[in-house]
């Protein structure tokens, strides 16, 4: 197994994360409801957001197979925490897609979203809700 990233704790509940292949860097901060400043994604925000990014990536792969353009597609992500033990209890992803997509494409893309590796890697205790909006 090779390493994919480094994480450097910089103090005050802040981390800098670097993707080794690209050099891309993002930061995390603890959320305000857990002693942090909320100045960046929290680690649990990244988990929830990773679910949406993974689903959109898999949908993009299927869209390429279908000859469908998803360039204007976006998602909004919500998460609900549980206190004991502190964990992500629910992630809701609202996908906004073109209303011009035909029924077959919609069915295939929606099914593809649920097959993403992040979705399959999360605990079955974590509720995942995907809502698809065609605008």
UniProtKB/TrEMBL annotation:
Compositionally biased spans, kind Polar residues: 18-35
Region feature Disordered, mapped onto this chain: 18-37
Gene3D superfamilies linked: 3.30.300.20
Top-level taxon: Bacteria
Pfam families to which the protein is assigned, alphabetical: OsmC
InterPro entries: KH_dom-like_a/b (IPR015946), OsmC/Ohr_fam (IPR003718), OsmC/Ohrsf (IPR036102)
Alphabetical list of PANTHER family matching this protein: OSMC-LIKE PROTEIN (PTHR39624:SF2), PROTEIN INVOLVED IN RIMO-MEDIATED BETA-METHYLTHIOLATION OF RIBOSOMAL PROTEIN S12 YCAO (PTHR39624)
Protein's name in the database: Osmotically inducible protein OsmC
Organism this protein belongs to: Neisseria iguanae
Lineage: Bacteria, Pseudomonadati, Pseudomonadota, Betaproteobacteria, Neisseriales
């Amino acid at each position: 197994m090779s390493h994919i990233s480094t994480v450097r704790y910089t103090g005050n509940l802040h981390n800098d994360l670097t993707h080794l292949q690209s050099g891309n860097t993002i930061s995390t901060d603890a959320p305000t409801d857990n002693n942090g400043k909320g100045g960046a994604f929290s680690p649990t925000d990244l988990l929830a957001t990773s679910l949406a990014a993974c689903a959109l990536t898999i949908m993009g792969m299927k869209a390429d197979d279908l000859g469908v353009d998803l360039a204007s597609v976006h998602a909004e992500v919500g998460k609900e925490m549980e206190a004991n033990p502190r964990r992500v209890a629910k992630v809701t992803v609202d996908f906004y897609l073109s209303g011009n997509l035909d029924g077959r494409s919609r069915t295939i893309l929606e099914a593809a979203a649920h097959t993403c590796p992040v979705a399959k890697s999360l605990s079955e205790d974590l509720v995942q809700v995907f809502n698809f909006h065609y605008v």
